[in-house]
Amino acid sequence: MNEEEIYREHVLDHYEDPFQKGECPGVTHAHQDDNPLCGDVVRMELRIDEDGKIADAWFDGTGCCISQASASMLTETIQGKTVDEAKEFAADHMLELFGARLTPNRQKCCLLSWRVLQTALFSPKDGEANGG
Amino acid sequence: MTTAQTSRFDPATLRADFPILAHEVHRGVPLTYLDNAATTHAPRQVLDCIRETMERHYANVHRGIHALSEQSTELYENARGKLRQFFGAEHADEIIFTRGTTESINVVARSWGDANLQQGDEILLTEMEHHANLVPWFQAAERTGAKVRCVPITDDGELDMDEFAKMLSPKTKVVGVVAISNVLGTINPLETIVAAARKVGAIVVVDGAQQAPHQRVNLAELDVDFYAASGHKMLGPSGIGILYGKRGLLRDMPPFLGGGAMIRRVTTEGFEAAEPPARFEAGTPPIVAAIALGATVDYLAQINMDAVEEHERTLANLAQEKLLALGGIRVLGPTADKKVGIVSFVVDGVHAHDVAQRLDKHGVAVRAGHHCTMPLHKRLGVAASSRASFYVYNTVEDVDRLVAGVEETQKFFRRGK
Ligand SMILES: Cc1ncc(COP(=O)(O)O)c(C=O)c1O
Predict the structure, then answer these.
(1) Which of B135, B235, B317, B362 is the most buried (most CB within 10 A)?
(2) Is 0.85 exceeded by the ipTM?
(3) For B47-302, CATH number?
């Protein structure tokens, strides 16, 4: 595989200038997890409205370029989508969204935010134990 | 005078023995293999031994009366003899063939640990242990009620020997310590540790995974109770390693795995265990790998282990110096004179995975992550690091390619900043 492709321009753009990184105002759903292997951390915060729409999506985290850029891409993608649409967004879709071909080890970095999102959709803020 | 010559042997000449080094990892990019602390490559002499054993002498050991079985048994036991000599053990029956360091430590924790540990006892480990010398002891603690404690390290990445002295007490039954840290490269003061442990009657279990490949070891002189090492980290094949145990201790220990080869007699009522080392080698052992490990230590001995250590220290020193000169780089661990062969580093603002990925483009193989030392990385305050580790076949040119790759990585991720 040509490594040059991994850090494509759009990947680096998301890494350096991420979409909605920080706290989500009026957050209703949130989840956080890490990848203990490399120490990547991603938190997803969502505001889901009464119609079941993700009115606002934010992420936060630290880690490698792949984990953070993919979190930014995912956040941008689900912004404004319905919860059902977000649930249907499968791991394969996430890898496709990322674009560059990844080895199995680095797919884990890319899928961290996706895992966190899938749990966040089911995690109302009130029920969250000590901030995840 | 050649500038590439860093020691008593010429690594450039030696490289011809290692077929894999001649391969390109990416098209047009030669391999700069600096992941030797994870695993090492085998020379032709070891590969030939594997082929010859399988083609001409292979059969199960200790079972047959036929010619091939006699031959393979002899080769297998000869290999044990070579390892005894390489490690300076007194008796060949003190060398047990295992799958590697991890299995060796598990055998000690299961067999010696279960038979000797109880509530109130303490197992004294260190903050810089590999998970292989932590988890088996946590498991033993769960089974026996003993408690695990970890000696802290100093900010310089050395064992805090004052704390060690304070934590060591008559409650301590086991002192488990890594001879050389696989992240920091720190060489731990085994003589001092053994002498202190003797005074409180604790046994000393040494994780020699990173020492055996890089330093001359004399186990009889060191006077440790158990010592574990892996063949694949010292130019041998994977799936083979050794557990050294003092004869007196091994003879009193119950077997861990049960099955063929580890028994003297089996009846429908029960079994009688064989004497060591067979007692701890249940089932068909990795016969070919063990014989090849014998060829491996022959190869290392012929280079001379003092020369090996000197060569790696020279390369690691140089790498550490040049990396620090780039700026924006933190090297983990003590100064170069207190360590051997390993340079772990963190590039400011760039995650270790991205460093390794970028270096791979240049054909430079380094490890990135926590290197199976999560407590140590927590102590150092970094989630992950990149590690360059050197061996006999590495050259000054390899160091230059590493440094150039890191410099390019810094520039790449600093674009627009
Ligand atoms: C210090 C140390 N201990 C133990 C191990 C485990 O060795 P193995 O995986 O060969 O059992 C390693 C290697 O990963 C190591 O570097």
Answers:
(1) B235
(2) no
(3) 3.40.640.10
